[in-house]
Amino acid sequence: MAVDTISILFRAASFSIKARSNFVFSISPPIAHSENPKSSVSPLDDNELEFLEIVHHFVEILDRYFGSVCELDLIFNFHKAYYILDEILIACELQESSKKTVARLIAAQDSLVEAAKEQESSISNIIAQATK
Asked: How would residue 61 be classed by pLDDT, with cut points 50, 70 and 90?
């Protein structure tokens, strides 16, 4: 049942986007290829609980970073949410499961951004003083 629904949605998305896209779409859902033909697995056969666990992990890290995360945090800081997601996942696979490691990496990124902003403002001040 779920596979049929996903196939229908995939076809509908393929046909609606085909005219405006440079991507090549296939009618059937993608299949992961393996050298062993018996081990060829569709992404639709992945463990749903694993996906739910990854989403839960992502929300916990967002909650830890933003305090009590809400929709407005994600709307106004979407770049940070994407950065956090990039630290957690690579190619839809869990990269980092440690919340402390992700928090440390995010803090390092935030300090780099702050240092760049300070440097930019000091250069702007120097230019403003030189042009007066």
From this structure: very high
